[in-house]
Give the backbone structure.
Amino acid sequence: MNPFTTLDGLVAPLDRANVDTDAIIPKQYLKSIKRSGFGPTLFDEWRYLDVGQPGQDHSKRPLNPDFVLNQPRFQGASILLVRENFGCGSSREHAPWAIEDFGFRAILGTTFADIFFNNCFKNGLLPIRLPQTELEQLFLQCAGTPGYRLRIDLESQTVIRPDGHVIRFDVEAFRKYCLLNGFDDIGLTLRQADKIRDFEARRRIEQPWLFA
Amino acid sequence: MAQTLYDKLWSGHVVHTEDDGTTLLYIDRHLVHEVTSPQAYEGLRLAGRKPWRTGSIVATADHNVPTDGSDLSVADPTSRAQVETLDDNIRTYGALAYFPYRDKRQGIVHVIGPENGVTLPGMTVVCGDSHTSTHGAFACLAQGIGTSEVEHVLATQCLLQKKSKSMLVRVEGELGRGVSAKDIALYVIGQIGTAGGTGYAIEFGGSAIRALSMEGRMTLCNMAIEAGARAGMVAVDQTTIDYLRGRPFAPRDEQWDRAVEYWRTLKSDDGAQHDRVVDIDARRITPQVTWGTSPEMVTDIRGQVPAPEDFADPVQREGVARALQYMGLTPRTPIDQIRIDKVFIGSCTNSRIEDLRAAAKVVQGRHIADNVKLAMVVPGSGLVRAQAEAEGLDKVFKAAGFEWREPGCSMCLGMNADRLDPGERCASTSNRNFEGRQGAGGRTHLVSPQMAAAAAIAGRFADVRDVV
């Protein structure tokens, strides 16, 4: 996993609530047995005018000019502004894979669905929960400022606006530690292998039917 | 101190806790299917690791498989590759049980777990599928996980997680005629919203829940995730124990007695505190129909399609306007005037024997309407299908003009050939009415099996209470 320390990036707004994982990456692309290559089909049904299929050359497909991420001013964005309950629905990790592969490294919203939120951290993608009033300001400033950029500093847990306003955010200490260092959490967990074995041995005695 | 069911399930599985509360939680049962596991096994292989305990793994192919009885060799090559990759991974690494395509016990992962007794009370259950919450019906802590977590559980038998808050949804009173567990689920989501359960584990309790069969409880817990909660659960009672007795992987003899004694403790203690309690009067719940593109966009069969201006919040208003446009619906249209093109009875929400019985009762001696292009019943598993055939339900459905299919996830998410065409409207017993869920441009209305059956007969939504 790529570490996440600081990010100075162009911001793109996705101004709709309850964006579900089917919208983030439709089912036909879940047939891949790889982890990469999902970026071109991020938000597929909104981004293109046709129905896409896996394996096709997506660069030749007709783009929907009304979809925000297709607008020239948001090309190269690495920070996505979203509304409440982003990432609801399925547990498909293809959703954060697609967002990350597209080029985003941080998502700023008020609330995220639990499984999606968790999946982001496994992929070097930082989802940030902000108060409604702060987020509203970001949407307004972004709409009114071509080339609107934000700076995110994970160490100090801050989002810094171009006007110098600083927004603090919360992140769980363990997740922050893994993200800052790009740690694979399986490696970290296996340091506790003895504890896992002890727990398992006890369980085998107390509830043997679980090990039949 | 008095503990909730969730407290008991959580504390019984803690291996280690970090300073910030991040916990290593031991996993008893790992359910695996073909879509979210290939990258996890690949990751394991690349890191030179092996599964920690293959005896915890139960696998099946469900998301991609054809339901028309066709051979996999004629299926879409990418679907086939995924199913074959699962075959290879299970062959290489092993599992407690594997129900491959065409096995008589193959089926939707959340149907086969309980029916084979591989889901048992007190377990932690995970699967790379959000509807894993289904298994909470057995007083399990059952959660959907992402593929990185699938790899983590394969490699370590643990999940890294912080404890959620606890919500009690208490449904008291008797359900009315024609009202099912699905209607409770949709009604609750309509009340608390699709983010209402975010950050919570939901326990469903109250007399209406205790009166439900295990199938009904599974339907309800299945849709906890649609309310935003990663886990839903119901306490153990006699209904749970009666369901499990004699299942192939359930304990036997002396171990059964020991297990039952423990299982009976799996309920919230008197006086246990939940972080939030939602009280629902069962008598207020009527047959539900969704009209929009989120499960919270739901109303009563006697209701009508709302107008965007009914909603005060501007983001919500715009969401409703967009949903109505996508769904091709005009505000104030009575729900029972909405005509349908297709009917889907199936999915991990509603494809169990009780669901099929309820739907068959409605269609018995009737025929689907002329405007219904396709009505299909997709049993949740080979065992459900065989049971239904033994009861003659297949004949009832076929005589009424339904297609009787092989088990799989099918048109709930349309990964195989079963899907809606753009603009088609479907009465579906599945769990998500998101844009494009059942096929690009398809329009999904979520209902109970009884209501789907009634819609098939009428060619539009109809109040099942008027039919039976």
Summary: The mean pLDDT of chain B is 97. Chain B is about 30% helix and 15% strand. Residues 30 and 57 of chain B are 5 Å apart (CA to CA).
